[in-house]
Design a protein that fits this description.
Elements lengths: L10 E6 L9 E4 L3 E9 L6 E8 L7 E4 L1 E2 L14 E7 L4 E11 L1 H14 L5 H17 L4 H13 L4 H8 L2 H9 L7 E2 L4 E6 L8 E3 L14 H6 L1 H6 L4 E3 L18
Parallel strand pairs: 2-10, 11-12
Antiparallel strand pairs: 1-3, 3-7, 4-5, 4-8, 6-7, 8-9, 8-10
Helix pairs in contact: 1-2, 2-3
């Protein structure tokens, strides 16, 4: 009997932009910057992390952009006070794009925050550094060389029984944080599925206004207008704020069943 999948702890809520919960595609024009926001919720005090992934029309592979907190951080650096995270990307091709949000619990960030607090309080870090070493070793298994070798070296240093001060400094160094962030454990990640869609149109679709006119209405008083007469009206139409002139379908004038005066 296959065991049930492990439960995910992160709830991804209120992904935006979306139309009717993803029932209809979002509309954008070529070159727009799409800002994706989501509320990431987790039980307890663990830190969360995540990405927005997107792909262009016709592509099978995804591109990922890390999520960042929107609001000022609360007690834990990098964790927003209102649980709102965001990332952005630029739509540079026409057609139907797809995007989604993936979020997971970040054990390393949670552990590092606790280690920093204990170091400030001059507490014993022996056990904490062993826990950190195990987290780094797990990341080394997920990383390719040469990053894996660098992570194994960090883990070896954290396992040592030397003075805890330098080892804690190494664990909390920005370079270590960047390596750990690059190879997170996403086995229990929450993924928004199915992905949301964006329909990207030409730029004119975002602002153009159409003016409809019959060329025959542009002639001098009492006379039918021509295309030349309609051309003389173009500056006037542009001054009114229109940038597209729409001419209704034009058909050859028939010889039978033609309307006479007063539509007779």
């Amino acid at each position: 009997m296959t065991p049930p999948p492990a439960p995910t702890r992160v709830v991804v809520d209120a992904v935006r932009p979306s139309v009717d919960g993803g029932r209809f595609p979002v509309k954008r024009v070529l070159g727009d910057r799409v800002v994706v926001q989501a509320d990431l919720l987790v039980d307890g005090h663990d830190h969360v992390a995540g990405v927005v992934r997107y792909r262009r029309p016709g592509e099978k592979s995804w591109t990922e952009v890390p999520l960042a907190p929107v609001d000022a951080p609360r007690m834990s650096p990098g964790q927003p006070a209102n649980d709102v995270w965001q990332a952005e990307f630029v739509v540079d091709a026409l057609g139907r794009w797809e995007y989604s949000v993936i979020a997971w619990v970040d054990p390393w960030s949670s552990w590092a925050w606790g280690l920093a607090r204990k170091r400030e309080a001059n507490q014993d870090l022996k056990v904490d550094l062993q826990i950190g070493a195990a987290l780094v070793e797990a990341a080394a298994e997920r990383a390719p060389d040469p990053q894996a070798a660098a992570l194994r070296g960090i883990a070896s240093t954290l396992h040592n029984t030397d003075d805890a001060g330098p080892r804690a400094a190494l664990a909390l160094a920005p370079e270590t944080a960047a390596l750990m962030k690059a190879f997170p454990d996403r086995r229990l990640a929450t993924t928004v599925a199915p992905p949301l869609t964006i329909v990207v149109d030409p730029p004119r679709a975002g602002f153009s206004s159409w003016y409809e006119m019959l060329p025959r209405s542009c002639g001098p008083a009492g006379l039918h207008g021509t295309f030349k007469d309609a051309e003389q009206r173009l500056p006037y139409i542009a001054e009114m704020g229109f940038d597209v002139l729409y001419l209704p379908p034009i058909h050859p004038i028939g010889r039978t069943f033609r309307k006479g005066p007063d539509n007779r």
